[in-house]
Amino acid sequence: MLPQAVLLDLDGTLVDSESFHAEAIARYMATRGVDLDERERAFVIGHAWQEIHRELRVAERLGDDLAALQAGAHAAKEHLRAEGIDIRVLDGSRELVATLV
User: Fold this and answer.
1) How many other CB atoms sit within 10 Å of the CB of residue 28?
2) Residue 4: inside a domain
3) Which long-range contacts (C-beta less than 8 Å, at least 24 apart) are formed by 38-42?
4) Of 11, 47, 58, 60, which shows the fewest CB atoms inside 10 Å?
């Protein structure tokens, strides 16, 4: 018998969007002359925009406020998608969802 309802958190359960977001932020900052190191890239995963902006010292390094960082990362995501890079669906996710519908 199927359950009446299922609640799934997308990231880390069905997809890996955090790596995609981290790559977009890194690419945006690189276009502005700032290369993120591995520690900085890793920090992006699991943190809110405000924390990322502060930890990466975006205002100091780029002169960008939070909205500019978000806009730059969004544009970088569009470039990544144009290159065929997108959010990765985790193994077994499609099969799991198919059993529920």
Assistant:
1) 25
2) no
3) none
4) 60
In a domain, 47, yes or no: yes
φ and ψ of 72, to 5 deg? -65, -40
* pLDDT for residue 38 is more than 80: yes
- State the pLDDT at residue 13: 84
- State if pTM tops 0.70: yes
Contact (Cβ atoms closer than 8 angstroms) between residue 48 and residue 25 = no
The parent domain of residue 24 ranges over 15-100
Instruction: Find the Cα–Cα–Cα–Cα dihedral 61, 64, 69, 75, rounded to 10°.
Output: -100
Could you tell me how far CA 81 lies from the centroid of its own chain? 13
Cα 1 to its chain centre, rounded Å, is 36
